[in-house]
């Protein structure tokens, strides 16, 4: 569907629809940065990229959310070449009055995985362009990322997130006001995973998580008490489901009328893995699939629509 025109590293997309316009917020990984730094620094130092669309298919790059005194402001054009903060995995919802963002923040630009605190921070906005910083959430550790938020069956808001200290499983907390959170413990345990997305479809609550080998699927009656679909090894968007044999990674669902679309990232079609070229290995693109439920089983459509360029061409896979 979309490739980031600055660094070609669009990941962790979340999409909302406001007044008929589609907005995509995503982690702008620095895949093609001319001097990204050592180790995994290229995965850090990221801004939140923004793209907009009239139909959810043809996207135009809008800019990045840049830090300012009050929070974040949408700025057109490329981000600064040198940055001192890392932003990951935005979750954007509407609370009935205004927009809310739950953003993973890391101080600095780490060049390795361990030893660096990660925090989920709340923001709010009236227009999706200017975001007021509300502050960090007090959760189960100082290594929390990848927020997902929804209002569940009994009327409570719930937050699901990855806790790296708790063996990288999904934890949950509840709130009546999206400000004060009560920890509820492990929502999804077992195999390490990340990037939960929670949504309603066909009378069920669904959670899709990224297991780095495809997506694990869980089902619930009311958004609590989750049961795995298809057994411990079953996934959707796994090997063989995407062009080039790639797998689907960290995404989120959006409802458009009766349709629910799942946006996620993978290697761009036509960019071969194993080339030995660092930029090729790091590039990523956003895809989407339509979700459906058949006899209580969540599945994807039999085809994917891939956004081949940032100029407006699409093709059916």
Biggest sheet, in brief? 9 strands, antiparallel
What name goes with the CATH superfamily?
Glycosyl hydrolase domain, family 43
Beta strands, count: 23
Please identify the top-level CATH class.
Mainly Beta
Estimated structural class: mainly beta
- Number of domain modules: 1
Distance between the termini: 12 Å
Query: What is the CATH topology assignment?
Result: Tachylectin-2, Chain A
Under the CATH scheme, the architecture is 5 Propeller
Protein name: Family 43 glycosylhydrolase
Keywords: Glycosidase, Hydrolase
Family: Belongs to the glycosyl hydrolase 43 family.
GO molecular function, one term: hydrolase activity, hydrolyzing O-glycosyl compounds
Write up this protein.
The chain is mainly β and 317 residues long. The protein has a single domain (10-316), classed as Glycosyl hydrolase domain, family 43 (Tachylectin-2, Chain A), CATH 2.115.10. Helix content is 2%, strand content 50%. The chain is built from one helix and 23 strands. The chain has one helix at 278-282; strands at 10-18, 21-28, 47-53, 59-67, 71-75, 85-94, 99-107, 119-125, 130-136, 144-151, 157-163, 169-175, 182-188, 194-201, 204-210, 215-220, 227-228, 249-256, 259-266, 285-294, 297-300, 305-307, 314-316. Strands 1-2-3-4-5-9-8-7-6 form a nine-stranded antiparallel sheet, with no helix packed on it. Strands 18, 19, 20, 21, 22 and 23 form a six-stranded antiparallel sheet that branches. Strands 10-11-12-13 form a four-stranded antiparallel sheet, with no helix packed on it. Strand 16 and strand 17 form a beta hairpin. Residues 305-317 have low confidence and may be disordered. It comes from Microbacterium saccharophilum. One of its GO terms (biological process) is carbohydrate metabolic process. InterPro entries: Glyco_hydro_43, Glyco_hydro_beta-prop_sf.
